[in-house]
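I'm stuck. Protein, please.
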Amino acid sequence: MRLYAGRKELSMDSFIRHMPHSAYTKLATMLDPGNLWERFAEKIPKKLEMTGQSDAEPRYTYQQIEIIAHQSRQSQRGSATRRVLQDWGTQNARIHHLIAILTAADLLAAADYLHNDLLHIGPAPRNADHNCGSISGDISSEQSPGDGNAGLGAKEQPAEGTDCCKPTSKDNLSSQLDSCSDCSHILSWISGQVSEDAQSGSPASLLHTQCAQSQESDLISLIDLNGIEIQNIPYSMLCHITNNFNEQPLEKGGNLIGSGGFGLVYVGQFHNSFKVAVKCLKQNGQVKMEDLVKQIETEVKTLSKYRHENVVHLLGYSVDGVSPCLVYQYLSNGSLEDRLACLNGTPPLSASLRLSILKGTASGIVYLNSQKHVHRDIKSANILLDSQFTAKVGDFATVCAAPSGASQTVKQVSVVIGTPVYLAPEAIRFDVSTKLDSYSFGVVILEVITGLPAQDNMREEKDITTHILENCEKPSQIHDFLDTSAGMWKSETVEGLFDIACRCLQTRKKVRPNVIDIKPELDTLIT
């Protein structure tokens, strides 16, 4: 116990609201950098008595967490950690609750600060199953069992809630999110004014709504999303925030930010500059309705269950309109592919940023694989970057459940899915294992260190794997292909990355490592 001037003696049973200002400041300096506070907030239970229980209902939804982040960014001296502590303190949370949550979130330095420096009772106890050095331990500490996902690394999004994140009414949506007191005015606007404007506003919005009514029942009947804990967002709201799906490119004043085989991606913006990415899935000659249905089900069912800082966050879906839509966090720095190509005149990525992106991408892949999923389309175009250039693995239309003992047991599929230049040789035999993802990651490593596109029809060897491996008989020869626009590279780092890439690109699946196998080495190279 410790006595502070003018304060009661602090102990494990003291309320966190009684902690001194210096303790709040210290925790903020420890948890705000790198958004570590998000891991802390995710673990806070709705009911204090459930602290430490893996099946506890979370106090904060992922959407609420992101809006707290947004409010903190908007405030000149804002601290997300302080906001969470102050809000949670209103529930009579005690210091022992706080230490338990920090320990569960694997934020041991912060737990030790409270236990040792604030209370002077020695280091905080570790969980029996805690393993500081294990990658699987890192992964599991960032997982929020059974939750939805949205911890958004870049901008903002329409709010929902994992407390009751099921398709819900406007009023229920607002009430779910009002518990985030700092953000309630944003949330009430989203759930109220936007819907009202869309329903009684512009002719274009009304036209979308009227057209939707003829297709809504058929689409909803096809899609099986029973039990999905993520928000069903009204199509009229999406029309409103995307300027009726304005197809002019963003750089020309429109809302279009991307396109693909399944449809178009738009940026949606709320009145407070809160942004989301809206993928509008469209049926055409190449894409059948059953394919759209499968993509929606795959992405929603996968992303609603898991959350990781290196996996893009799905915020909601919409199936009551002309086209089904998926709503994601908005990632302002686009894709790794575009940034390596310096698209639209953006500056080259520095060597240190590239290494950080590789490390983050590997973490995202390891997390997915640990959840028994194979992405099957890892590529630089599907590695998205937030405002801090944190890597987020995206596009989960191709995700497939991994077989038990994924590196040994083959799961048969009937269609080859993925991008050819990134596909492992066994993919043509319809083999699915986590080693598909490690092969693709090897290609991405080559892109990152050389700055060359994965496919270039003007090269003699059109794909980057053949081009580099045919011309680099020795590890040192990779320096001839190094992207010098990234600045200074450490020689040992480059050669180490090339060695990892070569192992990931082994044509024999049996000798090819999984990403989790090479991640410790990758982390060592990049540290």
